[in-house]
Please model this.
Amino acid sequence: MSQQWLVYLGGEIHSDWREQIITGCQTADLPVEFVSPVTDHGSSDRCGVAILGEEASSFWTDHQAASVNAMRTRTFIDRSDIVVIRFGEQYRQWNAAFDAGQAAALGKPMIILHPEEHDHALKEVDAAANAVARTPDQVVKLLKYVIEGSLG
Model:
């Protein structure tokens, strides 16, 4: 009997890495469901004020958005079987580091995805991970191995 796996895809939102992993897992016919934070940057930044009303300063606008988004991310990380966090090349992703810290604190199996040039900056995050991948294809292969025990 095959278990349905829930995989959280957190981190960088400016490239198609999520779609590459989802497509790769579909092609491999893996029993995986994916969840992620809101990946529309504008919606994520303005969700609090869009729903609850405008704030007097950008600090409180950001605070409100972070609090609202945290309900989604904390719930998905807590429910996930495996957490994948991507650190991209261009931006500092403090939210990705925070998600990785939450996953580590919960004892969640974790795959970190980032380019080699981030090795030094992410050494503590990498040390908490079960695997560090360089490409979405490597993540798919890791998931296939973990789920099926297969290298092929």
User: Anything to note?
Assistant: The domain at 5-39+77-148 is CATH 3.40.50.2300 (Rossmann fold). The CA atoms of residues 112 and 132 lie 5 Å apart. The longest strand covers residues 5-11. The helical segments are 17-27, 41-52, 58-79, 94-105, 123-128, 136-148.
